[in-house]
Amino acid sequence: MTAPTVQWTGQADPAEVTGHAVSRRAGRGGGWWALLPTVVALGLGWWRLDARDLWNDELVTWHVTTLSVEQFRMLVGNIDLVHAGYYLIMSALTTVTGDSTTALRLPSVLAVGLTAGLVTLIGRRLFDTPVGVLAGLVLALLPTVSRYAQEARSYALVTLAAVAATWIFLRAVDRPTRGRWWAYGVLLVLVGWLHFVALLVVPAHLFHLWRSVPGEEPRWRWAASTGIAGLFVLPVLILGSRQAGQISWVESDGDAVLRFLANLTGTTETLALVAALAVLAVAVAGPRWRATVLMLLVWALLPPVAGYLTAGTLHLFLARYFLFTVPAWALLAAFAVCRTARLATRERLPAAWLAGALVLLPVLAWQTLPAQERVRSNEADGQPRYLDAVRYLGTQVKPGDGVAYNDGFGGSSDVARKATDYGLRDKAHPRDVFVAVPARQTGWLTARECPEPLPCLGDTRRIWLVETGHLDDPLAGLPPAREALLRQRFLIRHVERFDRVRVVLLERKPA
Fold it and tell me: What is the pTM of this model?
């Protein structure tokens, strides 16, 4: 096979460009190495997949998959347009796979497995096989990756789309074909529709073009692909920006920054280790790999910095929105280990990188083991164990029974409502006595409650109160009119306690 000819245009160091040519040659063939990180990531994702109950946002995912077309249109017109693409995918999948906890989370597990494999291929293309394999394994071991592999939300699929777009982009600039550039544009559209913040991976692609790819033709093709993709994504950007108020609770103060740093990789210590290796990667890159390392830094750092700087208007400074940057950190860490090992042995030991890998991987696995356990626990999100309470409720409810909710702060918990709907989806469901219009018909994620409780209550004889307050009296914290009505007409017959939630049986007093 004839080696590709590389011409230097003055925009990159000749040794640097030659290094990219070598890495491209190394990237051909042997892609089966990507199977190792893929299998590890799939194994960790599958490990105790259903140990943790569906939490708030996952219950929203299930809720949206049950909506009719018109109800879905109403919802995304008001809220959550940024997740509309993911909801459509999940609605299609659940018609085939069902809506069990495992089925709802399975797409995320598969996405993380494919992402680890693609990170390996990217590492082989940018550097060589050892860097690629080590980067894929590092990614698979990070607790935050396991967390979102086991969550029925869009973030694992967003990361897969961003990584796949990067891989196709590198293939397109290596050996340009119309099909590859079209595929790149389609993947950018998918990234934008899944979560438009992940389009911040594109500046890293632009940096790679400017610094490492000679000639004008690749830049024109890139501009055409991104421009056409932008036409399809722009409506989502415009309409989605109008709904930014729904996450106005997101903060960007000092505590929020610390939470962001801890949540990006799973623990603060893990991030410190990965960041230290990224700094080492810059130090040992040399002219041959400097542009590639800088491109990865743009991928890793620019998106969260942009999220922080725009937090006051876009409210996007949450670590889970930037999961797509974690593969860049893994690639930097893997390169630092492999390159340092080779420099330490003066390139005399072909497998010197293996010594570094045998140190890094066990240290990373040991350090992250407690966090791996936490992400599989209900304690991870501080949510009451609603589904345990709902399973109990399903064994006790009788025809004609009603259900009500008390969050202890003067209102009802729509999370508890969705948990009850999910837990009893295949069983008899008690009537929600204080709801006038259910959430699926309001065009929002919340139900519309009765302004006057007495007419809604009717002649219901028994009410199951799902209560998450922290007071001894389970009726305390209800809206005043509702609390007075229940105290006047009902007696507390039984209280069943679960983790941060109680199920209280109320029976109507004798006439």
Answer: 0.91
